[in-house]
Amino acid sequence: MRKVIGVGETVLDIVFKHEQPIGALPGGSVFNTIVSLGRVGADATFISAVGNDRVGTNVISFLKDNGVQADYVTKCDEGQTPISLAFLNERNDAEYLFYRDNKKNNPEFAYPDVQADDIVVFGSYYAVSPATRPQVVSFLEYAHNRGAIIYYDVNFRSGHRTDVMRITPNLLENYEYADVVRGSREDFEVLYRLSDPAKVYAAEVSFYCKRFVYTDGANPVQLRADGGFCESYAVSDTQPVSTIGAGDNFNAGFIFGMLKLGVTRQRLIDGLTKEQWNKIMSYALAFSAESCKGTDNYVPKGWKPE
Fold it and tell me: Per-residue pLDDT tens for 259-296?
């Protein structure tokens, strides 16, 4: 059975509505993706680090309870598990404040065996940060050499705007490793001051990676791929309860679609048909829509994608 391996930060999300806390649950962009994949039966593994504290212990238990292999989540004696405050506005979109223990050293992490056509998902500031870069790039090099499909979610937010110049070499290297790049309008406005997906793809991404997905909230998703493939996909018109996990679960659905259709790395390189892309995107949009129906960051337990 093909594995999905996620690498990223783990945080405890505390969610606020009307300035009052309404819940707390484990999160992190790749974390949310992997939990949703575990919930729908994928062979999912997560690589991360948490503090040797109550939150870290609960996070590891949560992963296991949701069908995710947590043996590669390292407990660090120095530092505490990060906290995120997510404030929902009147449209139930979230704005974030992050609290991290800067004293914490980022440990070398162990990682599982990777086989050809396993899928690796990574992203966010964790993927470009100088603090975690040596560990991340070491794993990406290993996974690439083993023939894995590498899925990169840019997820670069405005809080790191002043870091753009410093992290650009790492960002471009991530594009080179990736077989699929997914980013949002907000990401590319922060990075390049561009909001036109065609310009982002042509000027910034296509030289490094041919398969590109551009999301823009409730607006249609744009897909670019090999051979000039260009398609737009409408987002379902539903009132969200929370959009915190929308992008992360889009990633989960996209990966689920590749698994369901038996897409290998070589098939990606050779180019998928329009019908294959349409099916993958239908799963991506379904996962995203489902996650927006509640305050969790993931699809519900027991949910079956059609």
Answer: 999 999 999 999 999 999 999 999 999 999 999 999 89
In the chain, alpha helices (H)? 29-39, 54-65, 133-145, 164-177, 185-192, 197-200, 246-260, 265-270, 274-291
Tell me how many degrees the CA angle 200-147-5 measures, rounded to the nearest 5. Answer: 75
Domains and CATH numbers, the chain: 3-291 (3.40.1190.20)
pTM for this predicted structure: 0.95
* CA atoms within a 13 Å half-sphere pointing along the CA-CB vector of 192: 19
Element (H, E) at 232: strand 229-233
Phi, psi (degrees; rounded to nearest 5) at 219: -80, 160
